[in-house]
Amino acid sequence: MSQVPINTIEITERAASKVKKFAENEGKNPFALKVAVKGGGCSGLTYDLEIVDTPAENEKIIKQHGVEIRIPKKSFIFLAGTILDFSDGLNGKGFLFSNPNAKKSCGCGTSFSV
Prior knowledge:
Elements: E1 10-11, H1 13-25, E2 32-39, E3 45-52, E4 59-64, E5 67-72, H2 73-79, E6 83-89, E7 92-98, E8 104-105, E9 111-113
Parallel strand pairs: 1-6, 2-5
Antiparallel strand pairs: 2-3, 3-9, 4-5, 6-7, 8-9
């Protein structure tokens, strides 16, 4: 995967396709993907993904591959430069975060520390 400028995050085409499918299944149109960070998990912070249809205040908005990504400004410091991908392989199915800010992450990849 390529390096992402630190002032943004990137979603791969594969992940964008899955997000669109989830939004369609939830009947949300128009929609956006909210990507946030919250406290929890074995490493201290966890990723939080949500299909939303209404904007919130203080969100950074990024549009890629037909998906609007909304990131709460409080979370952006932890997510800047991150690549969001989707795996459908034998080792598991789900969204994968390649986060240059994560100093340590758990084995399952859902929590991290900075």
